[in-house]
Amino acid sequence: MKLSKQAMLLYVVTDRAWLGEHTLAEQVEKALKGGATFIQLREKELDYDSFLAEAKEIKVLCERYHIPFVINDNVNVAIACNADGVHIGQSDMEARNVREMLGEGKIIGVSAQTVEQAILAEQHGADYIGVGAVFSTSTKSDADAVSQETLKAICNCVNIPVVAIGGIGAHNILELSGTGIDGVAVISAVFAQPDIRGAAEELLRLSEKMVKYENKSTAKEK
């Protein structure tokens, strides 16, 4: 799958914390109906068989909405369900090793917090970079903050899409205007909301506004 920058506009990462009486698939479909442009399935506790069954179910949904679907960390599950790709962190497998396992045509996303990490990820075959945490976040308590200066520097040093993550919501997303990012990755800003579809619709609108600002800023700089 060829990855476009538009796919980064509203990158939604799953979390089981707010399931309540609903299934994850039901919540993901609400996010897709609201305009999510990318889905990452993130499961840290499920056993392999349960993870794979869930991945297959979410993949069908993403195919229906023509949205990229990647698995967080677990390359074996990604291969088994034929996901569009994998997202890995700095403590996970190296990007070029993941590429050898997945083959060409699959998406590889890599988390980065420094310019050096971002450059290396691109050199080793990453298709996009996830940078964060750009704001404080309750979802990943161990995530170190990344300054806007570093975020800008990362965007300027790579030629692949960059998505910001960490504590992003409708209340602060526009603060990222001018950094050069192609979109935002969110978790609780969608799944912790009583109206998941409505939350996704609003975040997509704001992300599009932010990216349009980016384009105008770039044009002025040129």
- How many alpha or pi helices? 8
Find the count of extended strands (DSSP E, 2+ residues).
8
Uncertain segments of ≥5 residues (pLDDT<50)?
Answer: none
Report the top-level CATH class: Alpha Beta
Shape by Cα distribution: globular
Strand content: 15-25%
Based on secondary structure, the structural category is alpha/beta
Structural domains: how many: 1
Would you tell me which CATH topology applies? TIM Barrel
How do the strands of the widest beta sheet line up side by side? Answer: 1-2-3-4-5-6-7-8
List the main descriptive attributes of the protein structure presented here.
single chain; 222 residues; alpha/beta; TIM Barrel; 8-stranded parallel beta barrel
Give structural notes.
By secondary structure, the chain is α/β, with parallel strands linked by helices. It has a single domain, classed as Alpha-Beta Barrel (TIM Barrel), CATH 3.20.20. 41% of the residues lie in helices and 16% in strands. The chain contains eight helices and eight strands, in the order βαβαβαβαβαβαββαα. It has an eight-stranded parallel beta barrel with strand order 1-2-3-4-5-6-7-8, surrounded by six helices. α6 links the parallel β6 and β7. The longest helix is centred in the last third of the chain and has 26 residues. It is globular, with a radius of gyration of 16 Å. The mean pLDDT is 93.
